[in-house]
Amino acid sequence: MTSIGIDPGKKGAICINLDVDIYFYKIPYTKDNKLNIPWLRHLSGLNPDLVLIEEPFIMSGNKNKGLTTQLKEFGMLYGASEMIFGDDKVKTCTPRQWKSHLGVGSGKEASIAKAKELFPEIGLRFSSRCKKDDDNMAEALLLTVYARHILKI
Fold first, then answer.
1. Which carries the bigger pLDDT value, residue 125 or residue 22?
2. How far apart are CA 63 and CA 43, in angstroms?
3. Contact 2/49 with Cβ under 8 angstroms?
4. pTM of whole model > 0.85?
């Protein structure tokens, strides 16, 4: 079973869980800081059972520019994923949905701890120069776990 988890955002991550191997990528951006949708096409050779994208957390009354950018990029990731993999394989979920299902508390450290509990052999750093585990990698990985739970329901 192949599942892809996408934790969107400027520091976001993509996790591809192939059962035997797990791969991580940073959300791709161009040099002018725009989402690099053409880069995502290199994933088109995969045939995932499910692609799960975390929805942005929106607080009512929040109308800042960062939120607008976040929503725009979420829409672009969702649309590109549907074009690449097919609309029947792409789903979204809220942080609350997947975290409560997997028993993950709030906060970045809780996601890292749960990912390490489930996958102690997986490193959560994009490079050896990183000093801390990456919560975006952890959350993208946990989204693939939640995707597998969805498929079994």
1. 22
2. 33
3. yes
4. yes
Q: What is the pLDDT of residues 50-70, one digit of tens each?
A: 999 999 876 666 566 667 778
| Torsion from C-alpha of 144, 153, 151, 99, nearest 10 degrees | -20
Q: Strand (E) positions, 8-96?
A: 13-17, 22-26, 50-54, 90-93
The average pLDDT across 104-131 equals 90
> pLDDT tier at 130 (50, 70, 90 boundaries)?
confident
| Enclosing H/E stretch for 4 | strand 3-7
Q: What are phi and psi of 50, to 5 degrees?
A: -160, 140
Q: By C-alpha distance, which of 37, 34, 33 is closest to 6? A: 37
In sequence order, what DSSP letters do the residues of 55-71 get, joined into one string?
PPP--TT---HHHHHHH
